[in-house]
Protein 1
Amino acid sequence: MVSAPRRNSLSCRVIREVCDREARALPRTSRRGRKLDSADVLAYQCGKPMLSPAKIYFIIFGALTITGGVIGYVKAGSVPSIIAGVITGLLLLAAGLLLPEHRVAGLAIAFIISLLLAGQFIPKFARTGKMMPAGMMAILSAIGLIMAIIAWVKK
């Protein structure tokens, strides 16, 4: 039997009450057919993370990448900027939205896209020294790689 950790704060009691109400609607058997008691159901429901830092980061990173591609098109008329920005941005958004339920797929997509963007923008930033857009994208890509690795290792 898994039990939820005991805490005395008001917010934890409120969360526990909400989880208890929601637990009543959950199935009472596990995937293996084992009967779940109320403590197991409550621990399962309350233990699910709402939004992980990696999820938030990759959603923001995706939105910024799309925005950057649109700005590159508007300012310089760069069709490759909008195409690459929208495709990689949508993939980063998808990766963020897959987390935490589909952790392996979400982190794999986020890592690969961050690696591709880092491979493009870190050398460009080193060559030009321009903070926009190369420097910003180099930093965001490096953070994306680190976030994906940490989230993968953390399990």
Note: The chain has two domains: 10-47, 53-154.
Protein 2
Amino acid sequence: MIGAGYWRTRRGGTVCAHPMRERRARFGELIQIDGSPHDWFEGRGDYCTLLVFIDDATGRLTQLRFAPTETTLAYPGTSAELVRTLSVQVTRTLSKNLSCQYENQLMQIKTTGTGLGLRGAKVMVHEHFDGRKELLWKKRQLAYTVMDKPQRQSPVADSKTVNARVDKAMVRRDTGHKPAPSHPWRNMPIGKLANDGQCATL
């Protein structure tokens, strides 16, 4: 009867209740948040909920935290940590004057004391998507000021370089530079002392 077309079988699963969609193209575009209540510590601790932040593009677990319950108050602190997780993170070492350089910017740390404990410390620079930059040291945010295009001191030249500069200057002096005919020096009397005590010799 099926072969003759008098009777058709019922096919299940024709309606998809949860259609598949394409994942996001880039990391950080969409973060899915979910809470999973469970006895995670198997009776050795309190019954709690695991808050999970999952990146849609890569499926990476970007943030995990235990909370008593899945409430609105449990998410703000985790969201702040998530923003730092999704930021560009670069490690820098503070110099003796408590400064570090990042992308042609000199970051000077603000301290109320001497800041001896920060000398040579490893700090983490967090650059967020909106352009903000944070300096963290041992999970503590540091205040700083930014100076664009830092003025660096020129390196000390050796004796060979200094001698070459002197020789070049002497050659440039010997070739001479004669003033234009309309220059005021042309009108000064030759061999006569000027008011400043100098003699004009052209």
Note: Residues 42 and 59 are 27 Å apart (CA to CA).
